[in-house]
Amino acid sequence: MKNILEYLELTAEKYPRRTAVEDPKDSLTWGELEDLSKRIGTAAGKRIDLGDPVMILAPKSPLGLAAMFGAVYGGGFYVNADPGLPPERLREIFRVLQPKLVLIHPEEIPLIRQAGYEGDYCLLHEAAREERDEGLLEQRRKAGSSTDILYGIFTSGSTGTPKGIVVSHKAVIDFITHFTEIFGINEEDRIGNQAPFDFDVSVKDIYSAVMTGAALVLIPRQMFSVPAALLDYLCEKKTTVLIWAVSALTMISALGGLKYRIPSDVRKVMFSGEVMPGGQLALWQQALPKAEFVNLYGPTEITCNCTYFPVKKICGEEEKLPIGKAFPGRKVFLLTEEGREIRELEQTGEICVSGESLSLGYYRNPEETGKSFRERISPEGKTERYYRTGDLGFLGKDGELYFSGRKDFQIKFNGHRIELEEIERILDQIPGIEKSCCVTNQKKTCLAAYYMGKTTPKEARIELKKRLPVYMVPRKIFQTETMPLTKNGKTDRKELQRRLEDKR
What we know:
The protein is α/β, with parallel strands linked by helices. Helix content is about 35%, strand content about 25%.
């Protein structure tokens, strides 16, 4: 199969009356999801050309999921945007994406106008009532190929402009086929979806369900601030699989949620996005002794994950988990700065990935694509395309691959990938700020900004909230008379990090 819609239709044919997706307010069977997606696809197909991007600006819901497939039925690809984004941030995404169509809830129309969008939009509830045009849908399907873009996800960019990572149908099909087979996900499973649709962790939830017939249980974002309500919901929905960001799991365990109630139907817990604290993982392992726990690793650019490590024993407080071995069809290797492949134990290098499921690159950004996606002659003498993750790793004495940090100013913070330089560029644009620098503490639990200038920290925070997503606004903002410098005259980030640690 070359198109993800073929899997949706196959599943709808096998399980037309079984639940495909549900949230606290609504649910759709597989048959209903296919029908609704085709209706939205007809509405989209009348407004876009083959290969065009479609932005979806709507809360996470069964209808929002149908909108994603609808964009694809219409011959385009989808990009989800968080309705909570500041208008300035959305303006930057519009500038890169240049969508011909936005599928939207009525309450979000003022937002797209504030962001300067003047193109076509279609209300989701109206698109859902469109009469299906089977001829149009078939025409668009025949014109497509497996290498067409399926979705785009925007992430932070060091230049101050968000980067749109675009992923093909084939990349998703290849990865999810291996993913569901290795972890035994099947039609009896109920996948508890934690991640928002604009976050790539959700890709595993959505397409594992589509390709197996499992039910997708959407968990509202607000439940994650009320552990008791969240655990009640997981139990009520008899959730069996959790594929979550580390921060979501540790929030429950750290706040004592597992002492309130244990979601005993859960048989698999897979986590990614950050380093899992050993003590918090142990609490989950003790609560769910029969469940399988898996550490996943991989950036959005390689389609979700490239390595996995099944955790076979109770984790120690200070224990460092390996990131494991490569999924089938992938090759994960370490390179020196000079490009030599590292095979020696305990020698640090940059983690690189080749093989199937690499993304197509950054949308309308060949320069950034060329920096991160390279070609080389493999040890086998073949030319291969590979992605430089910017992550550092090493082979331990046990022969396992370990993550050891970043080689640049990019961090993972609360599950989100953030370029510190982007925050600094935005800060430096604020009137009254002369020079800024962003750092985190050693445990990556606090994001802070230091700056020189007359603007007050309160004023700086107000301006940042206008221009950046909330997860990119530093928790602490400090005004300073001078910036510490290294002997080379560069801003001394390590000294600022030390100051941040001292203030705790």
